[in-house]
Structure prediction request, 313 residues.
Amino acid sequence: MTVVTESETRAVRRPAPPGRPRRKISREAVAAWTLALPFVVLFLGFTAGPVLGSLGMSFTDIRQRDLRTPFSVDGVGFDNYLKALQDETFRKAAFNTAYFVVLGVPLTLIVALGAAVLLDRGVKRFQALFKVGYYLPVVTSIVAIAVIWRFVLSPDNGLVNMVLGWVGIEGPNWLASKTWAMPSLIAMAVWRNFGSAMIIFLAGLQGIPESVEEAGQIDGASSWQRFRHLIVPLLRPTILFTSVTTGIGYLQFFEEPLVMTQGGPLDSTLSVSMYTYNQFGFGNYGLATSMAYILFVVIAVVTFIQFRLLREK
Prediction:
């Protein structure tokens, strides 16, 4: 007769350790990936692939003649970046772009906020008509707008010089003057783009409770004090969003000088985007892509600074 001890009985009764469970893919996951697959393929093929390819090109000496044999190019390290930073014309274009952004972004936001306050507080009748009128330039072709502004700023029969002539002022040749060409482009950009920021500011103003301003009014604050110390702080997220989006767009400004001044006179309106475009046209692909990535880094840095300065505290 065999005696079974208590420890052996426990060992028999103890279930075997379970194996590693197999992960079952649910039908929902299969359906989700099936629906997402076309986007993933298109994103990898037409966005991520070209971006990584252009990044690799910036470290090579590839030119137009090398397109037939792209794998025979030589790596040059950071030489293209150094060459771009040492290029006097590129530095001039960078200065012009900074000039355009530093003046254009604040002016656009100020005009947009003023128009939003006017529509929210002052204009009650035909408000929708004003919204459409202010926003219409945003959805209009930039090329069409640039052509119209060329006629408006014409030195001979342009509308601006005609009005100045009525008060005895002889207007300059706006787009052919090194002094006035860039301010003319800034004025056009502000006029075209403030409508988009105005709509966002208007939504932000209408989202502020009326009780906030009523409390300031009870405390004896003037209209300006209520706007400065109550309304503007509550609009900080809106200001951040419009500042970032407007700044990114203005750092890449391209169509305005291309259509109106071709970068002149004497490169006074040449932008980084336009100079990069010209280098692609000359077949300097490695140099052009390095300039594009320098601009990308600048945009990232400027955006980071805007988030640090305008974030909610």
Q: What stands out?
A: The radius of gyration is 30 Å. The mean pLDDT is 85.
